[in-house]
Amino acid sequence: MTTTSLDKNLARLEYDKGVAWVTLNRPEKRNALNPALSLRMLEILDEVEADDRCGVMVLTGEGTAFSAGMDIKEYFRDMKDQPRIVTIKVRRLNYEWQWRRLRYFEKPTIAMVNGWCFGGAFLPVVSCDLAIAAEDAQFGLSEVNWGILPAGNVSRALAETMRTRDALYYSMTGQLFDGRKAAEMGLVNEAVPKERLRERVRELADILLEKSPAVLKATKDAFKRVQQLDWDLSEDYLVSKQEQLLFLAGEEREEGFKQFLDDKTYKPGLGMYKRPHKK
Ligand code: ACO
Ligand code: V55
Fold first, then answer.
1. What is the CA(68)–ligand 1 centre distance, in A?
2. N or C: which end of the chain has fewer CB within 10 A?
3. By alpha-carbon position, which residue is closest to atom 10 of ligand 2?
């Protein structure tokens, strides 16, 4: 295949006190997403998933961009000269990390949107469980500005996170909106001044790091799965999922029972029980 060889520099991975910081690192191309970056991201996701140093994964971008979306040259124009099967493979690699792997990632994920965020970059943002943006980050569904539609499940991701009027407005006008507006519309959880961005994400990660990993994984997967189910299937799925959780991490609930009902050392409504046997 053409462009797809593994380049470790395309994204950086750093561990710090329970957090895996993953930084898209093509700042000279505004972290545009090319086939080689897909490979690097798949490698990183595999590594992070298996590494106990990661309790929470944060995805962000180096420089002025979170990501300028799909690489218009490498992902689109260069593919015109390639056999169809190459296009198919390149797309598959892209969806594999942006969507299939990230959406149900083993660890909780936070998108830290530090700057430009265009088109295809909406997909990893929506696939992350939570998202915090810099107030002045600029978002744009710019597909319309160069003659395509938000494909590759970007429109589907919009349908999940934005209201119909907002999604159509921004994907039909291609107008920019900032982090504040993204938070107002519910595309991200909140927007903070750029100088507070890392600190706020760290704070949020620390809250998640207090919780049981098994419980968090079940919680996020259950929510995402039931979005696609009717009430009856959903009821049964959630019961099954909860019973599975007893098998995987029943001792968590036992601690909750004990510390609230017997010891009276905490109130579940107000915070977390002490986790003596963290795992
Ligand atoms: N695809 C390919 N190359 C890109 C992309 C991209 N998405 N974004 C930036 N680049 C390249 C530029 O071509 C330029 O390359 P060069 O230095 O070799 O000439 C380099 O990155 C720097 O880009 P500039 O435009 O000079 O950076 P600037 O900071 O002035 O502007 C901005 C940043 C606004 C992000 C601009 O680069 C831009 O509009 N990029 C395209 C955004 C876009 O529409 N992406 C596609 C969304 S649709 C989809 O993802 C399917
Ligand atoms: C887009 C994105 C894609 C794709 C085709 O947003 C078009 C436009 C995320 O992948 O494959």
1. 6
2. C
3. 152
